[in-house]
Amino acid sequence: MKNIIVLIGAGQIGQAIARRVSVGKHVLLADNRQENLDAAAKTLRDAGHDVGTTVLDVSSRDAVKSLAEQASRLGEVTGLIHSAGVSPSQASVDTILKVDLYGTAVVLEEFGNIIAAGGSGVVIASQSGHRLPALSAEENRLLATTPVEELLALPMLQSAQIKDTLHAYQLSKRGNVLRVMAEAVRWGKRGARINAISPGIVITPLANDELNGPRGASYRNMLEKSLVGRAGTPDEVASVAALLMGPDGGFITGSDFLMDGGVTASYWFGELAPAREV
Fold first, then answer.
1. Residue 82 pLDDT
2. Is the pTM of this model over 0.90?
3. Catalytic site residue 173?
4. Distance separating alpha carbons of residues 183 and 162, to the nearest angstrom
5. Cβ atoms within 10 Å, residue 177
6. Which of 48, 82, 142, 202 has the fewest C-beta atoms lying within 10 Å of its C-beta?
């Protein structure tokens, strides 16, 4: 029986991870655009990988459930790479919450139902979730454990409570990390592991949209005042993902790995720190 790696999101980070963890396995690649699928599949196949593709709306429960069933028919699902999402410059508040928050919760639940014993997964979150001020213990619990179909109805996620698309994105990415922690408990009962990675600015088409978008100056300032003074690369994220998904990461589950070149450290304690009341 084939070992199946499911890659949701045909972007550069997801592809880089797949190259590291899918040798000798079948990659089932899902994305919402056929042209993205075709380009990513060609790149992976040209590098020697066995790839199948399917169009997916990650914000649709039925579509994600169908993807999980399709993957299960192909073989044992031993790996999940969830890298799909939209950014604050690309989408509305409602779309960000539906794709980045609800969509991730659905993926974690549906693939938690079919992941093989010994399997593992990674969810790509974001440094943005680490710059959101602390939530209450109750808010954390609600983001982590509210039944998926009730998630978007939480009072804290209603339009009157969300300032702008960046705030929606930060809440979504904080929610992703909390959801991974809660879902790790359920995945563990199947003998599987799930973790999150929170990258900073990694040079991809999505990051270029942000660098050239309305918040571009802010993003360039982040890079200049980060502790390493540069953006990251998809291959650097893939190195961490390969650890988390492989045997060397066997003692790691329910965790989040912040890798942002020190932007968050600078935001809280360095040159990027905003003026705060004493």
1. 98
2. yes
3. yes
4. 25
5. 26
6. 48
pLDDT of residue 87: 87
Q: Is-catalytic flag, 169?
A: yes
Domain 2-269: give its CATH architecture. Answer: 3-Layer(aba) Sandwich (3.40)
Residue 146's Cβ-side half-sphere holds a number of Cα atoms within 13 Å equal to 20
Residue 117: Cβ within 10 Å count: 9
Active-site residue, selected from the candidate residues 169, 189, 219, 225: 169
Q: What is the pLDDT of residue 212?
A: 80
Residue 230 neighbours by CB distance under 10 Å: 11
Residues 6+ apart with CB under 8 A from 145: 182
Characterise 254 by phi-psi region: left (phi > 0), alpha (psi -120 to 50), beta (else): left
- Which residues contact residue 256 at a Cβ distance below 8 angstroms, ignoring those fewer than 6 apart? 125, 177, 180, 181, 195, 196, 197, 198
Taking the C-alpha atoms of residue 106 and residue 147, their distance in angstroms, rounded to an integer, is 10
Q: CB–CB of 172/181 below 8 Å? A: no
Query: Which residue ranges in the chain fall short of pLDDT 70?
Result: 275-278
Domain segments of the chain: what residues? 2-269
- Reading the block at residue 113, the tokens are 């139902």
The tokens 């579509």 sit on which residue? 63
| Catalytic member of 25, 98, 102, 173 | 173
